[in-house]
Design a protein that fits this description.
Number of strands: 7
Number of domains: 1
Order of helices and strands: EHEHEHEHEHEHHHE
Strand order of the largest sheet: 3-2-1-4-5-6-7
Largest sheet: 7 strands, parallel
Structural class: alpha/beta
CATH architecture: 3-Layer(aba) Sandwich
Helix content: 40-55%
Shape: globular
Strand content: 5-15%
CATH class: Alpha Beta
Low-confidence stretches: none
Radius of gyration: 18 Å
CATH superfamily: NAD(P)-binding Rossmann-like Domain
Length: about 260
Amino acid sequence: MKAFDLSGKVAIVTGGNGGIGLGMAQGLVEAGCAVHIWGRNREKNEKALAQLRAKKAGRAEALAVDVIEGAAIDAAFAKSLELFGRVDGCFANAGVGGGGRRSFLERTQDEWHQLMATNLDGSVMTLQRAARHMVERANKGDAGGRLVATSSMASVFGTQRNEHYAASKAALNAIIKATAVELARYRITAHAILPGWIETEMTRRATHDEKFVNAVMPRIPMRRFGQPADFSAIAVYIMSDASQYHTGELFVIDGGYVLF
């Protein structure tokens, strides 16, 4: 379908070298989108790049970036523009897990700030830099853009021993809604994606623990954990012209977990 042809479009995917980020990047590339992966681990970047280029569709490049540094984000974005000339979509997906091991009563300021630096501050600074570029383009007669944050179902239900992680994701939900309203005049849309239990490197300890699986699996109507590939189609939809009148959405992709 022509509406889902992403040829000529360019997207940045932070944390795109694995897990959900790579799943989204694969969908984008298959639809013809050019994708720039930002990831901290150079080896993972190269492996992801090989997978994306094997699709023989949209162009793919990768760059080592740590999004906790504002200067690093600015430099990386400048590199994206150097390589591709423009950025049509920014998927702020880079994040870290909270661990779920320490009680709220024992949470240290260092733990709080370290997680927020990546999950919240890094995502916001990345989206802000992309939004500035999109507004600049709009003011020159080239309106349009997509801002996307990877949130979590932890943002909408009680997540014991992981309140700092949940708080970082809930904040992203609010920021996405606010930017969706503010930037709509520039034809820029903003969305958050809320994954449920997805099998990734971050969740490996939980999804391979028999006690956890026995407790959680019966609560997932689909009776399986999600896979990174389950996020390919939503990324394509958001980047496509088909979604141009759809903004401020919190896309829940959890196999029905929150409903049951």
